[in-house]
């Protein structure tokens, strides 16, 4: 068997990179498009939650706009994971 590379779910199902959703939070992150593998793995881990419209949590988030209150967003993520973790 030849290793094709790419992304796989825990059950071995191959995931098309184009099918991985990009949440709104990612679009305001300085790492979006630069740390592709790390970002895709974080997104894949939460694909079901993203598709359900639940809060996407990424503790590596770095806003690309200084007007964004990063600390408030991180607190919201922490509260959400504490309640839904």
Describe the structure.
The protein has 85 residues and is mainly alpha-helical. It is 40% helix and 5% strand. The protein has a two-stranded antiparallel sheet with strand order 1-2. A hairpin with a 5-residue loop joins strand 1 and strand 2 (14-15). The longest helix is centred in the last third of the chain and has 15 residues, at 70-84. It is globular.
Top keywords for this entry?
mainly alpha; 4 helices
How do the strands and helices of this protein lay out in sequence?
Elements: E1 7-8, E2 14-15, H1 24-27, H2 36-45, H3 47-51, H4 70-84
Antiparallel strand pairs: 1-2
Gyration radius, in Å: 14 Å
Number of strands: 2
Quote the beta fraction. under 5%
Strand order of the largest sheet: 1-2
Total domain modules? 1
Task: Provide a brief overview of the structure.
It contains 4 helices and 2 strands. The chain is mainly α.
